[in-house]
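Progress against Task 2.4 (sequence-to-structure conversion) is shown through the following example record, which the project officer requested during the mid-term review.
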Amino acid sequence: MPESNLTKKAIALSAKELTKEKPYDKISISDIADRCGIKRQTFYYHFQDKYELLVWIYFNELFAPNMEGISLENWDEKLGAILTQMQEEKKFYINTIKHAEDYIIQYMLEVAEQTFEEAIDKLDEKSHLKNEERGIFARFFAYGICGIIVEWAKGGMKMAPEKLADYMREMLEKCKQAVYISDHDRQ
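Structure tokens generated for the chain above:
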């Protein structure tokens, strides 16, 4: 593993440890650098700010490993894995969602919207939807799922991750059926 990645992982670990002690918005670059045993300049060599670090953590530790190979058949399992990992590192994810909400939600929305755009493309084999409609549907589902995840985290992650993923799967299945019925009625 390149030294740059090792340093990034060490910085990320230090930030995650600090979230057990105080809100993310109160953590400074100096706090992270001191905890990691590096100079502030080393931090800035790898990340622009602590929010870029946060996005790096979410991408590399949560989304990338769990979204690999995602499909229409397994997306709910992948979502369940993401939610389970979030629950396993509950303090970090609750802290960052509560105290860096704008950055995290924006990032989650981008990931979810792209995923839904790809899924809608696969579902709409006959190209009944216009590009504008696809974008709106993708945003609708992205905002819905991200909103539910954020509320789940803010509420202390009380519901089991698998149960929450099942509810979301059922909801999307019902939407898919409604579109199919509507499409079938038009013909």
